[in-house]
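FAQ: What does the model actually see?

It sees only this:
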Amino acid sequence: MRSLTKKIKGFWAEEKSLSVLLVILLIQIFVVIQLGQGSLFGKIIFSVLYIFLLSVGLVYMTLTRRLALTLFLSLAAAVMLCAIVLTDALWVDIMTDAFIVFYCILLEWIVLLRTFAKGPITYHRILGSIVGYLLLALIFAHLYDISYLCLGKDTFKGLVSSDKKEFMYFSLTTLATVGYGDIAPAIPLTRSLSNLEGLTGQLYPAILITRIVSMQIDYYKKG
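And it is asked to produce this:
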């Protein structure tokens, strides 16, 4: 059992684990969330994939020796993601969204620290930067969902449903600064959030590319 645990930790300590995390995130964003959570089956699949994503992040945190935080997130994840399957209570949805936002912010921080650590810029670290970009979209999607759940239908215009896939779609188009206009924020809070996301979507690639290029140049100079 200990040898298996060491192998698992060893794998996630390697840079190629960033590539695996990207695959998990792509499945969650572009497949699972898009299936919707209107049915019990949809909720179960949604929760299972999030548990898998959470497990990956918790291993990352264990590697950084944040054991107390890891234990807290493990318990919170178990409670929240089980509750969302067993009940339709509004407060459960809000608390689950808030927990996912908090977790994704932590995961974003850890992934970026690993991506921009000292050493050569590898293929896996570039994919890690894409993970960071997609996590931003996921964070804002859940913030939009929290706004909708707390403030009602007036928060957005053009929503087809109140499912998370609507907010994921809006978040991705806003982060990519596409702005089709079929869904639009309608109150100051959601407008401010979408402005912040659009600004982040422009600055992140520019800063990222500059940082990666400068790190690679410095590495070759020192080498």
